[in-house]
Every structure is written in structure tokens, then in C-alpha cells.
Amino acid sequence: MEVLDGSAYPIFFHCRRGADRTGLASAIYLLLKTDATLAQARRQLNPRYGHVAIGRTGYLDSFFDMYSDWLAGRSHTQQLFRDWLVKEYQGGGRSFQVESLTWDEPRAGRPCGFQLRVRNTGTVAWQMRPGSTAGFRLGIEVFDPQEKKLPMNYWGLKDAEVAPGQTIDLAFVVPLLPSPGRYRILIDMVDPRQGWFYQLGSEPHEEELLVRE
After folding, report:
1. Which CATH number fits domain 96-211: 3.40.50.300, 3.30.70.1450, 2.60.40.10, 3.40.190.150?
2. Where are the domains of the chain?
3. Which of 184, 183, 186, 207 is nearest to 198 (CA)?
4. Interval 127-174: pLDDT, tens
5. What's the pTM value of the predicted model, to 2 decimals?
6. What distance in Å separates the CA atoms of residue 22 and residue 19, rounded to the nearest whole number?
7. In whole angstroms, what is the distance from residue 152 CA to residue 110 CA?
8. Distance between CA 136 and CA 44 in Å, rounded?
9. Res. 104: pLDDT tops 80
10. How far is CA 100 from CA 62, 64, 114, 171, 185, in A?
């Protein structure tokens, strides 16, 4: 929405095949900037353009299903869609809040351990599993003072279910902080079937870490 509001027109949408993500962006443009109906906009996600709603690509269609359900019989307008995007949409029911976060004293050349408590603020239960390829998990991205991303693993690989409104205590370790300086840490949850929560529209949690000699 911010890109569409701030762009100089005409603009050109593209992705790898021009079928799925391009269709999503085109439909959102029509809903925000034209008098197209919801049904007309959804035709941008159509087999004639190469879009087939099977597997992961079907989540794009579910985005508009959620908007349709929220309308609850009302007719779409540009302002209603804008209000839904800004005030109502929560990453497809996937959102979280960090309620507490502590860490060891960060020193260059050493690992640093973190402990945090996160609350499920969405509408979907988190089914967590020990395996690295199944279940919701904690995702961490660490950027050094030059904004280079450090190698990291997934965390929170435990057998648990976190219902909406519940909290869970998790921990992770940054294996090595190579040099002194200010590091940026991005903390997010990951749904293995759909991706990081921030990729679905939620906001990640970020912290700045001052690493000393």
C-alpha cells in the first residue's frame, strides 16, 4: 500500500513468472486505486495468467477470502480496503509480541545467549515440533555493523502448542559476534508452510546490541 501510494505512475509489476505475486499486487492496486469490485480484482489471480491456487500459491487467494469475510455483506470500497489493511489484517492470523527479552553481556569473539517470552497475538495456534523441518519455530536474523547477515539457525524446536493469547518462553544463542560495534537483531516467528510472519504482514521485533571488546 505504501509503495502504491508513493509511486509515480505508470508503474510496472513483475515477478519470476508474472502469475502469482504479480497477480496479488495487481489485485491490490485495483482495490486501492480504482472502482473495480472485489470480484473483478480477484480475476488478476486467474489461470489465464498462469495462477493455479494449489499449495502455497493458494494462500494468495486466502488473503482476499479474509477480506471478503471481514466485509460481511458490505460492498467493497477503496476506503474500506485501506482500513482493513491498516487496522485489521494481522498476517493471516499470525502475529506475536515479545513480552520480555534478556541477554548475556555481549563480547566480541564470543557467543551470546538470549532468553525471551513471546505471546501469540494472532488467531492461529502455533504447533511447535522438535524437528527442524516441521512446526512453528523462532526465526532470528543478526546483522553486523556493516549490515552483513550472520549465519543463524532456527530456534524454539520443541514440542509445544501455543494457543492464541498464550505465551511461551524460548531461548537462542548467537554463536559468534565477530567484532565490536552495533549489531541489529531481528526476531520473528516462522510458519514452515507459509514463511516468516513478517512476510505475511506482521511486524518483526528488532533490537540493537552493543558489542564490546
Report:
1. 2.60.40.10
2. 2-88, 96-211
3. 186
4. 999 876 679 999 999 999 999 999 888 898 889 999 999 999 999 999
5. 0.72
6. 6
7. 15
8. 31
9. yes
10. 33, 34, 10, 11, 15
